[in-house]
Design brief:
With about 625 residues, this protein is of the alpha/beta class. Helix content is about 40%, strand content about 15%. GO terms for molecular function: 5'-3' DNA helicase activity; ATP binding; hydrolase activity, acting on acid anhydrides; single-stranded DNA binding.
Length: about 625
């Protein structure tokens, strides 16, 4: 198979019109080419050579740790998350009702991180204090009194993923989840349902889920006096465990020995390992495991090479480095230089003073005078020699494009989102906005808007292709925690950021936390769409002039959010298909009723929607009437 760049591009062009409910062919091909170039991932090693050669853990999967009771399953699971934290900085959420009292469980982790017996004659107070402080910031134990269902457990885990960036979720053990089974549900049905949810949860959040599960009682080998080593089908409850888990690890102690059997019983993806059984040594003092090949101190289970304590990082940003999120290339649109975009460094664009004269003219002497600022901006537009629809250059913050900044012309995402905080929506708190933005560790930059009446900020996001979902979460957080209303047009990844000037711009030079939360829009929009489709009071010819006149007379703004603004434009294009100039004029008149009206932005939005408009567009002039009635009733 020839997979040269030319052929791949041709394939992409041929696949563009496939159904939207399939995996994007472009994404699939690019990801496969990347995998081919980089090689198959090896996984996460624990630092035990004999085990790492056989099997490695990985994110985005469900791994079951099983064995008969009291054979070290929980001990091994604790060792796994400790090693993943030491080696990769991965934080963990722990749902382990079996490990109570909780301070006893914490003591085990102290031993694992200090490689010492938990005893005041061995561990100093300073070591203890430093270690438990570190553990409190990396391992999060669920409050078992407040997590009474699987839904609540996963909601708590999701919150830890969003706020603490945990990469491992430990559920110890299955018995504690099994008792949550709804009345009347069969055991096999419950097992299948839970495991399916756990697998999907691990995939959706790119985390490792470790589920501890007991096996049925095993018989004893009469020769070795050891229990027979169980297998995956020995797990008590259902064969679903083997079918749905990605990996299954069996743990069993050896009688009269410090050795432990680690049996890899299932590996879904062979690049992470294979089915095999090995033995490792167990240190009873620290609770850590080490290679069987390592020499031990005679008469003990201690390795001859002294295990060193984990070095507690100086600050909280373990395994983290400061990333310059602004040092990226973005598309620069400047119609004075033509319609095609060029490239510019984002930090340079945000901090330059080249546009200072234009921006200061727009702001005038009284930066808080909204009306005069708008008048000066429009005056400048009218008299700007050679003006062609855009007074200042602009860049899309969240994405780059092949040519035009449109959804269908996407080239790549930038992992950034820009938010607007307008004065008209935040009059009571606008003076405190700089102070608030500086206090938020997710904000990498903020500065004044073009008219100087509000602020805009840039935030790096975890899921680069979920700009809208991140926006809705930000909108909720800013409203609930800071009483700040964001401009909801920022949810569109094609949105442009016009050049501005602020000598007091702020750049966060410390470690910037990725914003991880995502959310969905309120159901109001969905309900509105349903009602719009079923509205029967649309038989008569709709008079656009009459609607506009009443809106102007009563101050009714039917463009009160981004979606409605687009609907108004599309409904006018539907009504005046052969006269786009007339549609544009009406679009401006309806938009002028908004406090956020901007002539340049309005023109740009109309141009964008004209290019995207199709005769099959489902938004008709009836939508205009529906928006008018809805907004009028809300007055």
């Amino acid at each position: 198979m020839n997979i040269t760049g030319t052929n791949v591009q041709n394939n992409l062009q041929n696949l563009n019109d496939l159904d939207i409910n399939i995996v994007s062919p472009e994404v699939l091909i690019q990801e496969t080419l990347k995998l081919y170039a980089d090689g198959m991932p090896r996984g996460l090693e624990l630092g035990i050579k004999s085990l790492d050669e056989v099997f490695c853990f990985s994110l985005s999967n469900l791994t079951i740790v099983t064995g008969i009771p009291n054979q070290g399953k929980s001990e091994f699971s604790d060792f796994v998350i400790s090693q993943l934290n030491k080696r990769y900085g991965y934080k963990a959420g722990i749902y382990s009702p079996e490990n109570q009292l909780i301070n006893f469980h914490l003591a085990k982790f102290v031993s694992k991180f200090t490689n010492k017996q938990f005893d005041k004659s061995v561990i100093t107070e300073s070591e203890l204090s430093d270690t438990i402080t570190y553990l409190s910031k990396n391992f999060f134990v669920f409050d078992y009194r407040k997590n009474h269902s699987l839904t609540e457990i996963l909601e708590t885990a999701q919150n830890l993923i969003d706020t603490q960036d945990i990469k491992v979720l430990v559920l110890d053990s299955w018995n504690e989840i099994e008792v949550l089974k709804p009345d009347g549900m069969l055991d096999t049905e419950w097992v299948g349902k839970v495991l399916y949810k756990l697998v999907q949860f691990s995939r959706d959040n790119n985390i490792l889920v470790l589920l501890v599960a007991h096996t049925v009682k095993m018989t004893i080998d009469t020769t070795t006096k050891d229990y027979l080593v169980p297998n995956s089908y020995s797990i008590n409850g259902s064969a679903h465990f083997y079918g749905k888990a990605d990996n299954i690890v069996v743990i069993q102690k050896m009688v009269d020995s410090f050795e432990t059997i680690v049996k890899i019983d299932k590996v879904r993806f062979k690049n992470y390992g294979s089915q095999k059984q090995i033995k490792v040594n167990y240190d009873t003092d620290s609770g850590n495991y080490f290679d069987l090949s390592e020499p031990i101190i005679y008469g003990t289970n201690k390795p001859a090479t002294l295990l060193q304590p984990f070095v507690i990082p100086i600050n909280d940003n373990t395994n983290k480095s400061v990333i310059d999120y602004l040092n990226v290339e973005v598309d620069l649109y400047d119609r004075m230089l033509g319609k095609t975009h060029t490239s510019i460094n984002l930090k340079e664009y945000l901090t330059t003073d080249i546009y200072k004269p234009v921006v200061e003219f727009i702001r005038g002497e009284d930066v808080n005078d909204e009306d005069s600022s708008k008048e000066r901006k429009n005056l400048l537009i009218q008299n700007y020699e050679g003006y062609n629809g855009m007074l200042l250059p602009c860049v899309p913050i969240s994405a780059r494009f092949i040519n035009r900044h449109e959804h269908t012309d996407l080239k790549e995402y930038t992992s950034l989102i820009s938010i607007d905080i307008d004065m008209q929506d935040n009059r009571d708190i606008i003076d405190r906005v700089p102070e608030i933005l500086k206090s938020i560790s997710n904000v990498v930059f903020f500065g004044k808007s073009v008219r100087g009446l509000g602020f805009f900020a840039i935030i790096p996001i975890k899921y680069k292709d979920k700009v809208k979902e991140h926006y809705f979460a930000l909108e909720r957080d800013f409203k609930e925690h800071y009483c700040i209303t964001l401009d909801n047009r920022c949810k569109d990844f094609t949105r442009l950021r016009f050049a501005s000037y602020d000598p007091n711009y702020w750049i966060n030079t410390n470690y910037v936390e990725l914003y991880r939360k995502t959310a969905k829009a309120l159901n109001k929009e969905v309900k509105a769409k349903t009602k719009e489709k079923t509205d029967t009071d649309t038989d008569n010819k709709i008079d656009v002039d009459k609607i506009l006149s009443d809106c102007q007379k009563n101050g009714i703004d039917i463009t009160n959010n981004y979606d409605n603004w687009n609907k108004v434009c599309l409904s006018l294009l539907s009504e005046y298909k052969t006269d786009t100039d007339k549609a544009r004029a009406y679009f401006h008149k309806f938009s002028e009723l908004s406090d956020k009206y901007d002539k340049i932005e309005c023109n740009d939005q109309f141009d964008k929607l004209v290019d995207k408009y199709k005769d099959s567009n489902k938004v008709s002039v009836k939508s205009l009437q529906y928006l008018y009635k809805t907004c009028k009733n809300d007055l």
